[in-house]
Specification:
Elements: E1 4-9, H1 10-39, H2 58-90, H3 97-117, H4 133-155, H5 164-183, E2 186-190, E3 193-196, H6 200-217, H7 221-235, H8 242-256, H9 271-283, H10 285-297, H11 303-308, H12 310-332, H13 335-341, H14 345-375, H15 382-414, H16 428-433, H17 436-466, E4 472-477, H18 493-499, H19 501-525, H20 541-552, H21 567-573, H22 608-616, H23 618-621, H24 643-652, H25 659-663, H26 665-680, H27 684-690, H28 699-709
Antiparallel strand pairs: 1-4, 2-3
Helix pairs in contact: 1-2, 1-3, 1-17, 2-3, 2-7, 2-14, 3-4, 4-5, 5-6, 5-7, 5-8, 5-19, 6-19, 7-12, 7-14, 8-10, 8-19, 10-12, 12-14, 12-15, 14-15, 14-17, 15-17, 20-28, 22-28, 26-28
Enzyme class: translocase
Transmembrane segments: 21-44, 64-84, 104-122, 134-155, 162-182, 208-230, 242-259, 279-299, 311-327, 347-370, 390-414, 434-458, 502-525
Main location: membrane
């Protein structure tokens, strides 16, 4: 059959390559900065302690780091690999060059919008989904553009059967769309303020259904697709087992979607949901390790090349890191291990094994290999690439191992009791100061890893300068002839399915929907899952404003609001948390780590002056604290102009504010603010420092009102369930 000539679009691949390198440096640099704040809390107080800069505080920089690394660095790296491999696997140029450019520039615009809004405190507070609703809409739009481009390319392909990498790209496209849309359903209040349509326990489950599977279907499945393409290409060996790849794909996408609840073990989530998450998480080890084995055994007969080729070195450590992380995840879903790991730095170490080794090294290897292909020249320096590899590997070890030590240290210190039944470390801060040396080692590891990546940037720039520009690469392939839709004699079922791409996509969608529907629908529709508590009332207007400030400052990055039913936690914090306490929490704020103590029962524990001094200078109330100062809260006037809109929006979501409550919101807010200011003026030091200043209209007062409310409802009605 006569072959057709066409051109691969290399320009879009180069665009994503440069974006990957740029955002990699930026994301890692912010990560290093955040790591250093654990060791030097005042590092960014350039204007003096009383003039701390709000947008350089940890609570605002941490989500900037996670979003920059996940969506900017890894995201661009994924698109880099997909745009290169898809064209060659399907023997077709991307469906539409204009859509490719819209996808690229739209994605970069979203990243820039995130880089501006997150430091400004415009955040929904949800892990890996902090962006506010206008940016969420942009993400969905650009994802649809990407989807049209990918599906269009599949439909016009010249290769009859879709290769395993394309299976994973399809699963990624479908699942991320479902996850992102359902997790980010929200009620817009203003241009950059919204409330999640889910509250409390329901919001927690939906968020971790998304959060776990964002890791699964954004940081894992597309990278597995890249592994199935690039590892055989670089090693010049076929994939070890086609049959194993089939088992790997279908079991992975079916099981992964169920595993989210293992992030919520021992919380107020119903027991049946926790158990489902555990069971499916444990089963996940089998398909995950099937993929790791398939990747590593593809190198059989080519291990001598690993010694010579830096790209294969990166791939080997990446796949090994994937195996380690996907062994550790199921192990952490066992309740006895989860009781140790959850809320500690063990989890941070675990996450970064995946991020630094699996994602970072896989993308680094792809970038090095593609540089030679895209610029038609040898890599500028293999020695530099090898240096990057060893610096990065040492960086991973220096990062992860200290955090494992820190995690076990925290867990055991939190649970230590004296013979008389009191806590050995009753002051939570004592458990923080003991792990600061581990935080210092983590910062060293981050420095090594970032240095290695900077060497990659230099190497690629030098390679590009030495090479030639080939924007369109000539290729040829025979067009597809129409054949019967029925299975041909000797054709296996899956081989037949690989040419029925619409059916393949439908089956993929069904596989990923089942787990989410089984877990989420009953929790939303069956009221008995969340017994209500009569004494739990909606937040007052001032408390609602204070809660929004708490979210804006990212306090939930360090403080949990979930007391688990452990003797040590009940002794330390108070009565364990109940599902019915969170029914008016839009969104939930249970947190995922404890750099500071849990605050769910902090209401009434300290007086208003303690909270005021703690926010102005944490070291004044808690010597040795690594919490940042929030001096801007006493300078910023409280903007409550939208309080009626906020309350009306929450009424739509089911919060029982009356028309009278909404009409009198500003007056009620003022009355409560005056009461707090009166309490503050009982302290002579406060009067001395702030004299006749009008404090009642400052943001600090609203935040104090929220903190003083936390956990106080249940004291009046622990058994008042209905």
């Amino acid at each position: 059959m006569e072959k057709e000539q066409f051109y691969y679009d290399n320009k879009i691949v180069k665009m994503f390559l440069w974006a990957t390198i740029l955002w990699g440096v930026v994301g890692m640099l912010v990560g290093l900065l955040v790591a250093l704040l654990f060791v030097f809390p005042g590092l960014l107080e350039f204007a003096g302690a009383d003039n701390a800069i709000s947008w350089l505080s940890f609570g605002r920089l941490r989500p900037l780091h996670t979003n920059a690394v996940i969506f900017a660095f890894v995201g661009n790296g994924i698109f880099l690999g997909i745009y290169y491999s898809t064209q060659r696997l399907l023997k077709a140029r991307m469906f539409n060059d204009v859509l490719s450019r819209i996808h690229f520039w739209g994605w970069q615009a979203i990243i820039v919008a995130a880089a501006i809004t997150l430091p400004l405190g415009l955040s929904s507070s949800k892990e890996y989904a902090e962006l506010e609703w206008p940016i969420d809409l942009a993400v969905v739009f650009i994802w649809v553009i990407f989807g049209i481009n990918l599906i269009g390319t599949i439909l016009k392909r010249r290769q009859r059967h879709i290769y395993v990498a394309i299976w994973f790209y399809i699963a990624t496209l479908i699942t991320i769309a479902v996850l992102y849309i359902f997790n980010n359903l929200e009620m817009p209040i203003t241009a950059f303020k919204s409330y999640s349509v889910y509250s409390g326990v329901q919001d927690a489950l939906v968020q971790w259904w998304y959060g776990h599977n964002a890791v699964a279907f954004f940081l894992t499945t597309p990278v597995l697709g890249l592994m199935y393409y690039f590892v055989p290409k670089v090693a010049n060996r076929p994939v070890y087992s086609y049959r194993l790849s089939i088992i790997h794909f279908w079991t992975l996408i079916f099981l992964y979607i169920w595993a989210g609840p293992h992030h919520l073990l021992y919380t107020a989530l119903p027991e049946w949901a926790q158990n489902l998450g555990t069971v499916f998480s444990v089963m996940l080890i089998f398909p995950s390790w099937g993929g790791m084995i398939n990747g590593l055994l593809t190198l059989r007969g080519a291990w001598d090349k690993v010694r010579e080729n830096p790209v294969l070195k990166f791939f080997v450590v990446a796949i090994t890191g994937y195996g380690m992380a996907t062994f550790e995840g199921p192990m952490l879903s066992f309740k006895n291990l989860n009781a140790i790991g959850h809320y500690t730095d063990w989890i941070v170490g675990h996450v970064h094994i995946g991020a630094l080794a699996w994602n970072g090294f896989m993308i680094a290897g792809i970038v090095y290999w593609l540089a030679e292909k895209l610029w038609k020249t040898p890599l500028y320096s293999k020695k530099l690439a090898n240096t990057h590899f060893w610096l990065g590997t040492l960086g991973i070890l220096f990062y992860a191992i200290p955090l494992y030590v820190a995690g076990f240290t925290q867990a055991f210190l939190w649970k230590q009791f004296n013979p008389d039944g009191t806590l050995v470390y009753g002051n939570f801060l004592e458990t923080v100061t003991q792990v600061i040396p581990m935080y210092a080692m983590r910062a060293i590891g981050g420095t090594l890893y970032l240095t290695g990546f900077v060497l990659l940037a230099i190497n690629i720039i030098k390679t590009a300068k030495a090479g030639s520009v080939v924007e369109d690469e000539l290729a040829e392939a025979a067009p597809l002839k129409k054949i019967s839709g029925k299975r041909i004699a000797g054709e296996g079922f899956h081989t037949w399915l690989e040419r029925k791409t619409v059916l393949f996509t439908i089956l993929t969608t069904v596989a990923i929907l089942i787990g989410g529907l089984v877990e989420i629908v009953p929790l939303i529709l069956v009221k008995s899952n969340i017994p209500t508590i009569e004494s739990v009332k909606p937040y007052t207007p001032l408390e609602l404003e204070g809660r929004d400030i708490y979210i804006r400052e990212g306090c939930n990055n360090c403080h949990s609001q979930m007391i688990r039913p452990f003797r040590s936690e009940v002794e330390r914090y108070g009565e364990y948390s109940k599902a019915g306490e969170f029914v008016y929490d839009f969104p939930f704020l249970w947190g995922s780590r404890r750099t500071g103590p849990d605050v769910h029962r902090v209401g009434g524990k300290y007086n208003d002056n303690w909270h005021f001094n703690h926010m102005m200078d944490p070291r004044s109330t808690s010597p040795g604290s690594i919490m940042p100062r929030y001096s801007w809260l006493i300078k910023n006037d409280l903007n409550a102009s939208n309080i009626e809109d906020k309350m009306s929006g929450l009424v739509t979501l089911g919060v029982p504010y009356s028309d009278e409550d909404i009409a009198g919101a500003k007056q009620q807010l003022l009355v409560q603010a005056k009461e707090i200011e009166s309490n503050l003026r009982q302290d002579p030091e406060f009067v001395k420092n702030y004299g006749s200043s009008n404090i009642q209209n400052k943001e600090i007062v609203a935040l104090i009102s929220y903190l003083q409310r936390l956990g106080t409802d249940i004291k009046a009605g622990r058994t008042a369930l209905k």
